[in-house]
Design a protein that fits this description.
Shape: elongated
Strand content: 15-25%
CATH superfamily of the largest domain: SPOUT methyltransferase, trefoil knot domain
Distance between the termini: 51 Å
Strand order of the largest sheet: 7-6-5-10-8-11-9
Number of helices: 9
Helix content: 25-40%
Number of domains: 2
Number of strands: 11
Structural class: alpha/beta
CATH class of the largest domain: Alpha Beta
Radius of gyration: 19 Å
Largest sheet: 7 strands, parallel
Length: 245
């Protein structure tokens, strides 16, 4: 197979076929899978001239490396991501615009969950690092419930330089942190253009990233419980920064 990526799961495959951000080579189906949702996938694939092949369930699990394939996989190219300058040129000048920046998030499940929340709650896009971060893999697409296949993702090499660039474009930079320097997230001044920076699962924000932030914000909670998972924290903060007046 000449694919670079093998998406799996009904939602990622469906969103990929609908939005066309990848080149699609072949739709693979578990031989016994004939649900209405799968039939819709077949219709989408056939309408685009994409071959459909039935395979055994064991082979599907081996090819995808996951038990969560739902009897569906799609051989396709890597995801087309956005260039930062190109993305900024196309952004609206009116209304609240929130970007999410991921500072070396390593867990694909966390990355996918943040993308799903960002897409659902109305963020404008997500910034991810090309290195030292979870790649935009099939696992990320599955964890995002397919949102990765349509939500704008910008890949950058240097997050610190990117944040500096965004400041010049009138973005206010806020970083999620759990220490005493951080203010409660409800107290942060809201702006039309904002960037929410989420740190690594274990280390949090890197020092240089922290220095680039205009504000550090935190979520208060029960002190007897360990801090929130990065994806849960991101969902709370995104909702506030997008929807609050």
């Amino acid at each position: 197979m000449n694919d670079k990526t093998l998406l799996y799961g009904i939602a990622p495959v469906q969103q990929c076929l609908i939005y066309g951000k990848r080149e699609c080579y072949k739709l693979l189906l578990k031989d016994s899978n004939s649900s209405p949702r799968v039939k819709k996938l077949v219709q989408l694939a056939q309408a685009q001239g994409i071959p459909v092949k039935r395979i055994e369930g064991g082979e599907m699990a081996t090819l995808t490396g996951s038990k969560l394939h739902q009897g569906v996989a799609l051989s396709c190219s890597d995801l087309k991501v956005h260039d930062l300058d190109e993305f900024l040129e196309g952004m609206p000048r009116d209304g609240r615009q929130l970007l999410i920046a991921m500072d070396q998030i390593e867990d694909p499940q966390n990355l996918g969950a943040v993308i799903r929340s960002a897409a659902f709650l109305g963020a404008a896009g997500l910034i991810s690092l090309k290195k030292n971060s979870a790649p935009l893999s099939a696992a990320v697409s599955k964890a995002s419930a397919g949102a990765l296949e349509h939500f704008p993702v910008i890949e950058v090499v240097n997050l610190s330089e990117t944040l500096q660039r965004l400041k010049k474009e009138a973005f206010s930079i806020v970083g999620a942190a759990g220490d005493e320097e951080a203010i409660l997230f409800q107290e942060v001044p809201l702006a039309d253009r904002m960037v929410l920076v989420m740190g690594n699962e274990g280390q949090g924000l890197r020092n240089l990233t922290r220095k680039r932030c205009d504000y550090l914000i935190r979520i208060s909670g029960n002190e007897t419980v360990e801090s929130l998972n990065v994806s849960a924290a991101a969902a709370i903060l995104i909702h506030h920064l997008v929807s609050s007046d």
